Amino acid sequence: MGFFKKLASVLSPKGDNADPYGIHFYVQCDRCGAVVDARADRRNDLSRQYEGECAFVWRKGIMDARCFQLMRAEVHFDERYNILSQELTGGRFITKEEYEQSKAPQT
Ligand SMILES: [Zn+2]
């Protein structure tokens, strides 16, 4: 995927600290390649677990805006919201940089 131009430094992401309860996952649809910013809210969206080292689970159906395929994410966290494992059916997890490059206008 080296054909995207390096625009990350130009975009200068801001406001990361304005959303202390949000955990963002960036996903890409397997079928059409559309990218989606999926937000998990620590207060509302995580299911508490009481067995094993997994403390929270986030399950989410994510629909992209191009082909409307429903992707299913399941992410396991420990007590400190560190990600233990993550799975995505119908797509794949990408980095924030990949997401921003995909959203940037192509020249
Ligand atoms: Zn799609």
Topology:
Elements: H1 8-11, E1 22-29, E2 35-41, E3 47-48, E4 56-63, E5 70-77, E6 83-89, E7 91-94, H2 96-103
Antiparallel strand pairs: 1-2, 1-7, 3-4, 4-5, 5-6
Bound molecules: zinc ion.
Q: How would you describe this structure to a colleague?
A:
By secondary structure, this protein is mainly β. It contains two helices and seven strands. The protein has helices at 8-11, 96-103; strands at residues 22-29, 35-41, 47-48, 56-63, 70-77, 83-89, 91-94. It has a four-stranded antiparallel beta sheet with strand order 3-4-5-6, with no helix packed on it. A three-stranded antiparallel beta sheet has the order 2-1-7, covered by helices on one side. A hairpin with a 5-residue loop joins β1 and β2. The longest helix is centred in the last third of the chain and has 8 residues, at 96-103. Residues 1-13 have low confidence and may be disordered. Bound molecules: zinc ion. Zinc ion is lined by residues 29, 31-32, 34, 64, 66-67, 69.
Order of helices and strands: HEEEEEEEH
The largest pleated sheet is described as:
4 strands, antiparallel
How would the global form be characterised?
globular
- Percent of residues in β-strands: 35-45%
Compute the gyration radius: what is it?
A: 15 Å
**Spatial strand sequence of the major β-sheet:** 3-4-5-6
Q: By helix and strand content, what is the structural category?
A: mainly beta
Number of helices: 2
Distance between the termini: 16 Å
Which ligands, by name, code or SMILES, are bound? zinc ion
Indicate the low-confidence ranges by residue numbers. 1-13
Please bin the fraction of helical residues.
10-25%
Average predicted confidence as pLDDT:
88
**What's the total number of strands?**
7
Q: Could you say how many structural domains there are in total?
A: 1
